[in-house]
Design goal:
Layout lengths: L2 H11 L5 E3 L2 E2 H25 L7 E3 L5 E3 H17 L4 E4 H7 L11 E9 L1 H5 L6 E8 L2 E9 L4 E6 L4 E7 L2 E7 L12 E4 L8 H6 L5 E3 L4 H9 L5 E4 L4 H14 L2 E3 L13 E4 L1 H11 L3
Parallel strand pairs: 5-6, 12-13, 12-14
Antiparallel strand pairs: 1-2, 3-4, 6-7, 7-8, 8-9, 9-10, 10-11, 14-16, 15-16
Length: 296
């Protein structure tokens, strides 16, 4: 995907200017996000290429997984940009939060807070599996105002601002495809569904695996932000996870909501990124799936 072309296309799509305050233009915020996501993507791709000649430098975070040098450089780049452009905004970013032992509590209603995952899918990245992304979101309190999810290897850019819809720009061969994301209106049963979830997790009840309805296929792809965005685009029919962080869910959660797919926590309560769980699904599957996941 050519950065300049995709950015120009995204700008044309979002012609309606939305302001969350007299001084904050979300169209400008979105364009900044897209530019920064592309630059972060360049950092990730560069390190991915280099990894074929020398091993990636890693930071072992214990139970919280691992981080690579690429995670840290991508995060540093975008945090410096946010601080330069929006110095009065708070930042909650995955690797910075680990280093400084920050808590991800619910922010004040009038607080602008950026939720950043500089590399979602680090295990995939470390193994050179091309399914990872940069996820950037701006919240005001619990509410996400703008979000971008960008897979730099597969050239997929998902983005949304509150009230203006969700979009995907995707490079397929030499062709650039741009679509507005909309939830399907047809009736789809489980036998036709392609779902994504971590069914090997200790948090999954063993009985669920025995009683789950027959589906076309199950996947476990390793990047919450991308998997949620895939539901918004109809490439997956449902995704759920029991324990995520705000930076995992914020941007993709807005993309799902603006696309019109169903999204909540697993208990069926209103979704916001400061909760711990998420369920997003094709509207035709959501109610039954939510009931299945909450059987006791």
């Amino acid at each position: 995907m050519k950065k300049k072309t995709a950015k120009k296309t995204a700008t044309k799509t979002n012609t309606k200017t939305t302001k969350s305050s007299p001084s904050l233009d979300l169209e400008v915020v979105l364009n900044n996000m897209i530019e920064w996501a592309f630059e972060c993507g360049e950092i990730l791709n560069s390190h991915l290429v280099q990894s074929y000649d020398k091993p990636l430098k890693i930071l072992d975070k214990g139970k919280q997984g691992l981080a690579t040098e690429a995670d840290l450089l991508s995060e540093t780049y975008v945090m410096e940009k946010i601080r330069a452009f929006y110095p009065d905004h708070t930042i909650l970013s995955e690797e910075d939060s680990f280093r400084r032992h920050l808590k991800s509590g619910i922010p004040a209603e009038d607080e602008y807070i950026w939720l950043i995952d500089p590399l979602d899918g680090t295990n995939n990245f470390y193994n050179r599996l091309p399914f990872f992304c940069v996820s950037l979101a701006l919240n005001k309190g619990k509410e996400t105002l703008a979000g971008v999810v960008y897979n730099p290897v597969n050239c997929e850019l998902f983005y949304a601002t509150k009230g203006t819809g969700a979009w995907l720009i995707r490079l397929i061969g030499e062709s650039e495809v741009k679509i507005r994301l909309k939830a399907p209106k047809g009736k789809k049963g489980f036998k036709e569904a392609l779902l994504s979830a971590n069914l090997t997790s200790k948090r999954v009840e063993k009985d669920l695996l025995k009683t789950f309805p027959e589906v076309r296929a199950m996947r476990r792809l390793g990047s919450a932000a991308l998997e949620m965005s895939y539901v918004a685009a109809g490439m997956l029919d449902a995704y759920w996870e029991y324990k995520l962080q705000p930076w995992d869910m914020a941007a993709a959660g807005l993309i799902c909501r603006e696309a019109g797919v169903k999204i909540s926590n697993i208990q069926g309560e209103e979704f916001h990124p400061f909760g711990s769980s998420v369920l997003t699904a094709d509207p035709a599957l959501y109610t039954e799936l939510q009931g299945i996941l909450n059987k006791r």
